[in-house]
Amino acid sequence: MQRICFTLRVKQGRMAEYRRRHASVWPSMLAALRDAGWHNYSLFLGPDGLLVGYLETDDFKQARDQMKNMEVNKLWQENMAEFFEEIGPAKADDSMAQLDEIFHLE
Length: 106
Description:
Elements: E1 2-9, H1 15-22, H2 27-35, E2 39-45, E3 50-57, H3 60-68, H4 71-80, H5 92-95, E4 97-99
Antiparallel strand pairs: 1-3, 1-4, 2-3
């Protein structure tokens, strides 16, 4: 099982709405993430807009590729694109800055 951590940056003026939207993620999007192998998925948002994502998956490349092909993810990405800094026309899925794991307690 791979442990994946990534970062993005949410625009300062959009953080409250970003939080609100994630309080009610579409059930079809939640099912798509599970079906694509995204397990133990969490997002953390700092006061400066730093968004840190964490998930566990058997194969991150495969899990990302599977999500990219789902219509619900395409719609979700279109709806969420306005919240992120520095991604230009790219989707957040393509702009995740993956961090290297350097320590794990287990």
